[in-house]
Amino acid sequence: MGAYAYRAPSSVEEALSTLAAEAAAGNRAQMLAGGTDVMVQMRSIDKGPRTFVDVKHVAEANELRIGDDDVFIGAAIASAVLNENDELKSILPGLIEAADLIGSTQIQGRATIGGNLCNSSPAGDTIPALIACGAVCVIASPGGEREVPTEDFVTGVGTNVLEPTEFLVGFKIPRPKGRSSDAYLRFIPRTEMDIAVCGAGVALTLDGSGVCTAAKVSIGAVAITALVVPDAAGALVGTTVDDGALAAAADASSALAKPITDKRGTVEYRKKVVGVLTKRAGAIARDRALAL
Amino acid sequence: MSKQHVSTTINGDAVEFLCEPHQSLLDVLRDELGLTGTKEGCATGDCGACSVMIDGRLVCSCLMLGVEAEGVDVTTIEGIAGADGLHVIQEKYLEHAALQCGICTPGFIVATKALLDRNPDPDETTIRYWLAGNLCRCTGYDKIIRAVQDAAQNLAYEA
Q1: pTM score, two decimals?
Q2: What percent of chain A is predicted at pLDDT more than 70?
């Protein structure tokens, strides 16, 4: 029973009515962005018929707005397009480097950070980076728009808060003010194109004398979902993000991590390395903020 | 489910085709349109043998639905050579023996074209990272890198 179909709505309104119609007809609908996960899964672990609803023609999901107070990144924008935007890269270097870490040139040409989040893998590289920079998910819903902080979006391995009649339009990210910056690091056994053993995103703000006034730390691939590490942020705030503060932040990340042992690494190894990544990402974010 | 009608442009020509909604662009190119220069290696986006350009951007055609080609400009390996013979990139791949079995070669050549269109003078590191999504199990890559460098020099000389 059932069949494959493809729809390409051009607006949020049209996309929502497409999703509602598919749901009412008892069909499974799947949003399609870059397709770099969807296409692979369709041929392997998830072959069932469905209606693809292509988000790439939805005008709002292609918007990229750099405002005075916040930045909006549409869910349909390919990583390569983000990476070619110098202004965006200078404002949110950590987020863009996380997106740039995913896949080859070919994958970058299609893959989106919206798709990376909606795929909801524990190892999604952009997820800790989005959380660290305070990204809020803008979700189109039959009842209107709703906003969900990125740390509350993913609910389990491959699952998230989206209802079948909803979709992710994009991300609203507070524009970093003054001496604020971010960084993301992941560890893989090779130089590129692999799934994270673990990852760490750090965003922080320094005052005029270099003292950290705000920080957010998130770690990935060390639990079912990316985690916020309040104690790591707490270890940085009020310091000049010196070696001692970074070591305390590293310990906080290692302590909070709840990884599994698999072919990519053991529990002990991941807990250790996620601390090291926290320390190093913190130092990079600090140096970037100091350079502003 | 009935097939879907798609209007697109492939290598400069207006093309219309019918395909299943879940058929990949790679399968459409090869099985519906007879453009068999584009190869299937892994069909999971890891090997780059199926590389094509969509509106000038390098992508894996195995990770794209045929229906997503509606209204775009597709460049395949068949569109690289000119009416008067091989493209410089193709000549340099031959000259440097940058291929052995040849399965990966169309993908490498399309990827090289996409690189040199954007960056006419890439350094070796840039070339190696750009081509990291194209796997070759025969050459060991060095000859490919030399061919790309030589092609870049020739293109710069011609320009």
Answers
A1: 0.96
A2: 100
- Enter the CATH code of domain B4-79: 3.10.20.30
> In CATH, what is the architecture of B88-158?
Orthogonal Bundle (1.10)
Would you tell me how many other CB atoms lie within 10 Å of the CB of residue A274? 33
Q: Does B93 touch chain A (CB under 8 A)?
A: no
Instruction: Indicate the pLDDT class of residue A80, thresholds 50, 70 and 90.
Output: very high
Among A184, A178, A141, A147, smallest CA distance to A163 is for: A141
Chain A to chain B Cβ contacts (< 8 Å): 86
Fill in the amino acid letter for A220.
G
Radius of gyration of chain A (CA): 19
Q: Which residue does chain A place closest to B5, by CA atoms?
A: A6
Contact between A8 and B70 using a beta-carbon 8 Å cutoff: yes
Q: Are B1 and B20 in contact (CB under 8 A)?
A: yes
From the CB of residue A147, how many other CB atoms can be counted at a distance below 10 Å?
10
Going from N- to C-terminal start, the domains of chain B cover 4-79, 88-158
B8 Cβ under 8 Å from any chain A Cβ: no
Q: What proportions of chain A, in percent to the nearest 5, are helix, strand and coil?
A: 40, 25, 35
Complete domains list, chain A, with CATH: 5-57 (3.30.43.10), 59-174 (3.30.465.10), 179-290 (3.30.390.50)
- The ipTM (two decimal places) reads 0.95
